[in-house]
Amino acid sequence: MAGIKKFVVGSFTDEAVLFPAVKNVRKAGYKIHDVYTPFPIHGLDHAMGIRETSLHTAGFIYAICGTTTALGFMSWVFTKDWPLNIGGKPHFALPAWIPITFELTVLFSAVGMVLTFCYLCNLAPFVKKHHFHPRATDDQFVMAIECTDKTNDAEVQSFLQNAGAQEVNVQVAETGWWIGRYDKEQKLYRDEIGY
Amino acid sequence: MNHQFELPGSYKKWTLGLIIAGVIALLYGFIMFHPFEHAGHGEHVDSTRFWAVLLQNSVYWLLTVNACMFFICVTTMAMGGWQVAMRRVPEAISSVVPILGIITFIILMAIVWGGRTDIYHWLDKDAVAADKILNGKKGFLNPVFFTIWSFISILLWSLLGRKMRSMSLETDKNGTMDYETGRKWIWKNTVWASLYTVFFGLTVASTVPWLWLMSIDAHWYSTMYSWYTFASTFVSGLSLMAIFVIYLKNRGQLEYVTDEHLHDVGKFMFAFSIFWTYLWFSQYMLIWYSNQPEETRYFVDRIGTARQSGPYRGIFFFNLIVNFACPLLILMKKSTKRSWTIVTFTAVLIIFGHWIDLYQMVMPGTLHEHAQLMPFEFGIAALFIGLIMWGVGRYFSKHSLLAKNHPFLKESMIHHT
Description:
Chain A is an alpha+beta fold. Chain A contains six helices and six strands. Chain B is mainly α.
């Protein structure tokens, strides 16, 4: 819910055209909001100059939390709260706890990373985001350029056209996410593309 | 670019220096330790030390260089293409297998036919006859079977490895392959690689560690042992490969090897260090849990008990830190796996760590509390390192460093993780 902004949107049909276009748009100093593609494209993140994700660092921290939770909880239970004699083993039976510690480490890191990933991508049930072009999930590569006060959008449009964009238009859209349901409040795909 | 590598003088100097240091250590042992003094269990410790150190080093370095051929074979069978740009490096390392194989075979034969009951307790005929457990293992643990199986193992590793190398080398002469020839060549490689891998499973991943190492503690057994030894030597082999790749890269060779390839080698080292730890732990935890005296014996000899700490306690836990904690924490980040310096450091650490690992597998059952970690032990290690460097250098200077007609070379050149 980051407010309404104006975008110039161009759609490309070929990734071989898209790559130089991304490069030229960045070189011209325009601000790329995002590029939406039907499938992951190797090296596009690099071309767009997006920084490396920190998701794995988060994963490491979650894993450490899992390790400490498991070891802390088990040692508290078996040495302080409710010591049991299990097969004559010492109360602080570290080797026996390692498998559980390992599992909790993996569990915390996996679940934590999935949730963080969803948060970073604004993915959740009943959350809606603006779609710049419905065919971005089908066969078009869609580039959205964010307009600032100084941007001349006619100029950007012609720039995109020269870069090889098939369709170019200006959209005013919400940049963040909002609560809603795609299945209930969405125009049908064919209405949108005008069949 | 010319892919022919001229061995620099410093490399030759180091090789010669290490071999000389090793030969001095060997001669020192030969004169001072009276290796042919006939010794029973626990008598004349120096003579036992001589053979135990030779056994540890020969088995460790042989299995380590052999692991490089295993790496080639599994990547071939998996249709892997990324490693082709540096494929000549594991090939060169595996070309040392016949040399170290002969040395290991001589050492093993000297131990077995020299009646070294201080190394292999099962060689003592009277003890075996009086012992129900050893008597039951007689069909497997006897000098004749030991000799035949060791011979077959070393022979087939050498021959099958040689076949894999010669198929790779003949592409240099034959020129570029068209699609059909390339397909046939890959298929032929896959067949030989699978033969090697099956035999590798029958030897390194099962019988050979049982015979050569586990039988030192003749009464004891662990079903994890061979996998453990395999993991230990495989991760050392990968580290050795990483060191040679980085060395050649520093010398301006291997132009198609990039950070991406190093990243994947680093991943292998990271993953197999953890695999080793998994086996280490599985072996330890099950024995600790079931607490059977005949099984815990192995760990009592090393760590000792709660009341009395054993002579190997320090080495035992050092082993775990160097081979698990260090690779885990150092190689976890992407940037460290792509750093040539850090990968070199970790590779040296891993090779040393697994050398120590084999040390604590061999010494407690042979030397008990008399084991030492003195210049003699390191000198023998230097001898083997020198021999490996000599063999690898010979292969590098004879053959092109790039398998330039390999059908998957393009895939390796554009490799991207």
